């Protein structure tokens, strides 16, 4: 799968859920329940197979954006810190935890199936619990990874994150992001998705360069 990790942004999910009447109070789920939900999303939507843009009559739209940031640190260190989704916790105020369901290596590619949990404050302080189901594929020997994700209401995000050594101690991280959603939600999804990824990039850059990561 290609691009679940970093996911759909909390504001996007909140708005989408509210618009479709799917919002609900935050509730705790066991890791086993989350794993079952992940498998259902995988079996039902096969989000990793979204290779072409949907036809107009499907009521869905797809938009691609590229964003980059330069980080001053060795490429192996940048890659390991950046590709670890657990390091994204705290870079976004709503991301509360990441539950890993499977982690294995096959043909030099590391696969990680996980669910990201975000608690989004709504009216009167009642939180909405949003779950993003994802699979990450890490190609460490080639310094890139991919993440595919799916979030209610049927929002798919595909990511390919590439790490390039610019010399003189600088590494450029380029995120190729593809968002697919209802035509009613796509503009909001893209705008907030890009801004969330940029905020996470800035947070990771600061943490890597100051030695926190």
How would you briefly describe this protein structure?
This is Polyketide cyclase. The chain has four helices and seven strands, in the order H-H-E-H-E-E-E-E-E-E-H. The protein is of the alpha+beta class.
List the helices and strands and how they pair.
Layout: H1 10-19, H2 31-45, E1 60-72, H3 75-83, E2 95-106, E3 109-121, E4 127-139, E5 144-151, E6 155-167, E7 170-182, H4 186-209
Antiparallel strand pairs: 1-7, 2-3, 3-4, 4-5, 5-6, 6-7
- Inertia-based shape: globular
Radius of gyration: 17 Å
Number of helices: 4
Number of domains: 1
Q: Quote the beta fraction.
A: 35-45%
Widest sheet: strand order?
1-7-6-5-4-3-2
How many β-strand runs?
7
Q: Indicate the CATH class.
A: Alpha Beta
The CATH superfamily is identified as START domain
Order of helices and strands: HHEHEEEEEEH
Mean pLDDT rating: 84
Largest sheet: 7 strands, antiparallel
Low-confidence stretches: 1-26
Can you give the helix content as a percent range?
A: 25-40%
Q: Architecture, according to CATH?
A: 2-Layer Sandwich
Broad structural category: alpha+beta
Enter the CATH topology name.
Answer: Alpha-D-Glucose-1,6-Bisphosphate, Chain A, domain 4
Q: Report how far the terminal alpha carbons are from each other.
A: 26 Å
Keywords: Signal
Signal peptide: 1-28
Organism: Acrocarpospora corrugata
Protein name: Polyketide cyclase
